[in-house]
Amino acid sequence: MGHDDLDQNTKSGSLKETQILSKPATLETDSVLVGRFKIQSLQGCGRFGCVYKATDLQLDSNVAIKVLHQHLVSEASLRVFKNEILTLRQLSHPNIVRVHEYYEDEHIHFITMDWIQGDTLKDWIEQHTVTEETLNDFTGQILSALEVTESKAISHKDLKPENILIDNNQHLYIADFGIASAVGDKASAVITGTPLYSPPEYLESGKSVASIDIYAFGLILYELITKKLPYHAQTQEELIKEKLSSQKVKFEKRFTRYEKLVQRCIAPLADSRPKTASEARKLIDASQDKGMSRQSKLTAISVATVLLALIASGLYFFRADNLGGKKLIGAKQLIEAQQEGVQSLAVLPFDTKSAEAWLIDGLPHLLSDELSQISDLRIVGYERSRETMDLLGYQTPLDEQKLKVISDLTQSTYLLNTKLVPIGPNRYQVNAELIRVAGNTVETSDIIQFQSNKESLAQEFSSLVVAVNEQFGLESLDTELYLPQGVHLETISEVEVLLKNGEDARAKELLEKLLNSEAEYSKGWLLLGQLEASIGSILEAESAFQKAVETSPQNSLVRNQAQAELQLLAGDIDSAIETYRSILQRLPNNSDIRLELAQLLIQQQSLETAKQELITVVESDENHPIAWYELSKVAIWQGETQEAVDNYLVKALVTAKKLKNTQLQGDVLNAFGVAHHRLGQLDLALDYYKQGLTDRKKVNDSRGIVTSLSNLASVYAVKGEYQQAEQNLLQALETNKSRNDAVKQADLFNELGVIAEEQGLYSKALEHFQSSLSIRMKLDDDWLKAESLNNVAYIFFLLSDEEQATIYWEQAKAYYEKVDDPVGVVRVNENMAQLELQKGNWQSAYRMYQSALEKSEELNLTEETIVAQAYLAKIAFLQGNFEQPPLQLNDIKTELKDRQDVRGQVEFGLWLTDWSISTGAYQQAESILAELMPLMEQEKNRSQQLIYNTLASRLSLYQGDDLPIASNQEFEQVTSKAALESLVLQLEALLFSNTMQEGASDKFLVVSQEFDQYDLDLHRYFLLRKLILLGYYHAQSGDDEALKTVLDQLTMLKRGVGTYWRNYQIERLESIYYGMIKNSEKARESALKALKSFTELKQQLPEQQQQHIISLQGRYFSADQSKDDFFMEQVNDKE
């Protein structure tokens, strides 16, 4: 792939490149970054980094990778760089190389981009002579790309032929758009761009100008045509002097149409250059049009004459129908409205010197409501326009540049500007003008003016609505008045302000007072109903909504909204959705209604339909302040997280930055964190959560701060950084106190419980979970109750309190089923399956896990699927399948490693270690333990640490080492499972020591009795193991009666547990017993059964592992007593 900085022969002092002072370190071929990108070859290195061709192993496709030079990397620069990359990812254009993502692999920082097979335009110029047709084509492609980037306020800053790629079809791709800006000035001590293609003022000051890319574009055209640049300087100082001198551009005849364009593009003064790519394109078109024939000119003059005649006849003036004598000021009818389909009109805040709230807030709001009734016009209401202006710091009156910005941000070609001037006591002059913004052109047309007194001003504004409707050449409009005659605008305005500020009680008081005297005010009844519903006064809300229906016109927006509210109160969300659909049939361009419909569809879990409604919103309004954000959330809920990251969230962030909306930016950055968290990219998630937290703190968004801190804690917990996680949650709890938010308080206690549980601090976890449950049981949210009940149950399970665990799990399952949450049901079932397996009921556990797996795969639940697969593998291993389960579990562990799930890696790594030791794979066990060691330091879970130490000691014991036996070992804050595993090891060590005569015999019985403090009915596999070892102890002691007692217990236990791979040990003990009582026939019969079972197990294993487990069998029974062990006799004979 050709690239901007692939000239590897750059010499010191060359003006073509800023030299890299030291040779950069490069990556080795076939090395893999972040476990995904396999390096194929180095393409070259330049000022910013080295470019490689690589294979994306996940997508099985080629990508280009740019690895940043280390001297450009710092914490501050990376923060800027990542934000810029987010902006660059919005550039989706056929002539721009798409930037995919930023990654970090230890000290390597890189971005991935589209791979383009071809050369650089620099190479092409050297090898070809451009034709007129090719030049026209190349020019069009480059300008097309620049027009898109200008619309996104992005500059390349290093545009040159080396940065333009060309494929075999002569398709151009501009590479490294904005990389120079993203990296910043560290790439060069003087400038960011390449000197030869940079304008002189940039070389002098280093400050970017709007025409920087246009300047470079002109020089690229010059070079395409002449194969050289118009400079001869050897130093940068000389180059600046040449650039400041006017260049007389002269091309051969076939390229003369480009002379004026290039002359303007490379003009010494920035003001003399085209301001935009569109203006540059017009210069080319103008040069082409110079040669048009005389007939063409006469035709144009004739058309102009006709148009003037039409204007003189009054046909282009506003029709005065239905305006009640209002004076119209020659309002030019904008016929583009008929030609261009649906148009957009933004209602600007009134241009008035008055400070009265009803004029500057109430009346514009009313006007927006009435204009929203125009079905064929997309109305951007006053509230959004005002919010946009407030965020940007704009105030009326607006100059042309600010009007262009508002037009772009609201995606409105037309702006309604209303000037209201007091002309006497309670009397006003109103002048309304329609502003059309098209590119750099701003046209203003007066459409209506009138005078009115205060009492009738609101009603007079209906004529403005009619005027707007007529102005766009739309069908006649029956205006809907939201205010009946006499309603006081000052009160309405105060209500609107109170609602905006969250002062609901005062707003309700004023509304009730107003409606007592103005009972026909339908919009007031609707607002009152919404207020009553928000505080839970359902009957009062129903009454208010019914009044709104009764007092509003048939099929009016207020009536439809009130009907939908009544349907929602009745729990009939389907009917409410249909009501909103009927509104959109009449008002298809009402984005606010469509957004509300999307929210209802989300509540109904109709995510795909909601997504389509939101897409409809952004198709007409790409800068909508909410829709992109909502789209990203829907995509994440649908499992399309990568799409959310690559598309919707990027556009939401760009919109937030355009609007300078710090609140929205914080929300979007937090959503980026959620997405990367779900994708398992924890470092990226942390980064975005921190950025979101910073923005939320700037605007004192306490709710957002609490959420960000909670999200950070969840990532730190997964990474095993529990102290940091707990610190974040405690900060969140403190911040939440002032909010008096019981729901969030319960959530935070719940998260603290999770962190304590993951560290093995079960008593502390139970305390936190019970605090959360106590709060949630008082709330009207059954799902939260279910979650807390499930968590409390699980801690009781870990503490071996089966009765409490079962009680709480049954309650949790009932609540999950009540709220129809299949995910919650799956989780409870998996937890209860653990209890069944631990009790030895593997058949029941198998059925439960198999069902959970099928449901998890159906619902696309990653974690639940992993859990079910792991436990099904465990059940298979317990039954004696030594081949497939370890492979399956290893695959799961690898997946968890990719997801950076430390706890999961440790848990299943310990399983694998145990299985490896049991099957004689000692070298593999050593390798896994070494791999787990750094993770154990992160995890800090006491139970897992004890199991780790136990397994490491067992490995040494099985390899022939003697172990020191701990005395009176205490197991505080660990699970019963961890304690029992340690006790089993102690029995094994004592049994293998062959020193029963030296006091180990008594110690064995002491340790055996320590099992009694645990409920072994909940741990039947541990009971089996204990009894087997106790049986060998009695065999070694020659106590056949005690052995018979143990065998009777084992026989009963075996019937309950069923198939278990260690059952051959029971058959072997039976053989030893019969040998001790001199029943050789039954001894041999039992020995052959044991041998058959043992042989089936070991034949699954490689030779070395077979030898290991055979050697281990000899340590259970001392050599001098082998005469009674027909099993070992048979094993040795086989060998």
TrEMBL record:
Signal peptide: none annotated. Pfam families: Pkinase (PF00069), TPR_12 (PF13424), TPR_16 (PF13432), TPR_19 (PF14559). Residues 37-284 form the Protein kinase domain. Keywords: ATP-binding, Kinase, Membrane, Nucleotide-binding, Serine/threonine-protein kinase, TPR repeat, Transferase, Transmembrane, Transmembrane helix. GO terms for molecular function: ATP binding; protein serine/threonine kinase activity. The keyword Metal-binding does not apply. The chain crosses the membrane at residues 298-318. InterPro entries: Kinase-like_dom_sf, Prot_kinase_dom, Ser/Thr_kinase_AS, TPR-like_helical_dom_sf, TPR_rpt. TPR repeats lie at residues 522-555, 706-739, 746-779. GO terms for biological process: signal transduction. This is Protein kinase domain-containing protein.
